[in-house]
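Need tokens for this chain, all 182 residues.
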Amino acid sequence: MGDYRPKRLDERLIREGLLILGLVCLTLVQVSLLNTPVGFPPAIVLVFVICRVLIGIHAPNIESGISGAMRWAFYSGIALDIMTATPIGSHALALLIAAILVAAISSLVRVEGLLFPLLAVLLGTLVYETTLAWLYTLTTVPLDWSRYAIAVIIPSILLALVPTLPVFFIMRWIELRRQDAV
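Here are the structure tokens for all 182 residues:
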């Protein structure tokens, strides 16, 4: 009876450490392996975070629900900040804002189908890239917003939409298998 709590704490620490390790590996893949002709990689981390929000919003328990998605956004945002040499917290803030907005909208609307993950990633990418641009404007030099939209935001949205459906359906399948096992 006395060692129940330490075992539970150890399990949670190991699970959290594995989550951080997995998100760091995903961030490494995004930053180093996914080169594109437009000069920057697709925001695959953002796609995973938004898909996690969509899957977790209607989860039966809070551990696998929205709080899990927010941890994904925070951990992967900090990892992106470290790996891309941006001010610490900028990617984390942008991912959290995008995840919170998508979570708020998807908690109001119960939609199942192919279009909803695509719309959620479109909205999340728009918010994410706009937040990063706004933070860049505050910390360095003002941007020409029309050029930035054409050169960065629109290609980023298009690149993020490509892996959305496979990532969403694989993550949903894994979550359903995990719930069936419990």
